[in-house]
Amino acid sequence: MSVATTRKDFDSSRFLAGIARGIAGALLFALPMFMTMEMWELGFYMDRSRLFFLLIVNIPLLVILSDRIGFERTSTWRQAIRDASIAYGLGVLGSALILMAMGVLKYDQSPHEIIGIIAIQAIPASIGAMLGRSQLGGQSDGGDDAKEGDSDDPVHERETSYAGELFLMAVGALFLNLNVAPTEEMILLSYKMTPWHGLLMIAASLAVMHGFVYALSFKGSHDLAEGMPSWHAFLRFTLPGYVIAGLISAYCLWTFHRTDDIGSTQILMAVVVLSFPGAIGAAAARLIL
């Protein structure tokens, strides 16, 4: 009885398939950051206390994300922590191998530089490894088997609470912000934009967020409950989601030293600029996770 229970709780073939999808996910979702010069340079000069804090923040994020879309169905937090650790390990290993293959990491570099570059790249790579579970998940062959496979999929079966929806939006905003927050263009745009441009950007971000989830009928989009006015969903999900995207944007800009030595107006404008891709990431996370 215990052997059967153990096999039911841990399917090694499915787990290994999840590992393979995790590696593919790390490559697919983090490749743009592997090939971005600003991300390499962050490993040289980024304040180590800020980098360490970002690495620590990524741990509970991966654990909670693993509980929803881990490499296999998880029933305990211990299993979720195991999957999160594996995703982090895949992120570190994948980052090191790819950066070495591209010539970014070299043997004559100091350990300080090598560790910094790998650490900063491992964060989006680990999230990508975890996202590979939901985006690259396979289906069983055959009608009944396919249905059974779908029913075993925690991504599609598990209901998401309101707090869970907000968490997924935060993950989506963070992942997309990691792509663009290190770039100089965020600060350049903040200087080019006027307050009117900023207001227009905020309105566009809110419209895109709401449209992605409720108006454009994408796969995975949400339908309003019968009799529920559209403004209710806007106030309950879209507006809080944009606030979350703004907070994540501000944190990313601070972490990557993009708020150092610039005025408060430019910081606010940079947050508004970065919140646009952050809002798209937040909305997309509700559709695909």
Automatic annotation (TrEMBL):
UniProt keyword terms in alphabetical order: Membrane, Transmembrane, Transmembrane helix
Top-level taxon in the UniProt lineage: Bacteria
TM helices/strands, residue ranges: 15-37, 49-66, 86-107, 114-132, 199-217, 237-256, 268-288
Comp. bias intervals (Basic and acidic residues): 144-156
Record flagged with keyword Membrane: yes
One Pfam family this sequence matches: DUF2391
InterPro entries according to UniProt: CHP02587_IM, DUF2391
Span list, region Disordered: 137-156
Keyword Transmembrane: yes
Protein's UniProt name: TIGR02587 family membrane protein
Organism encoding this protein: Rhizobium sophorae
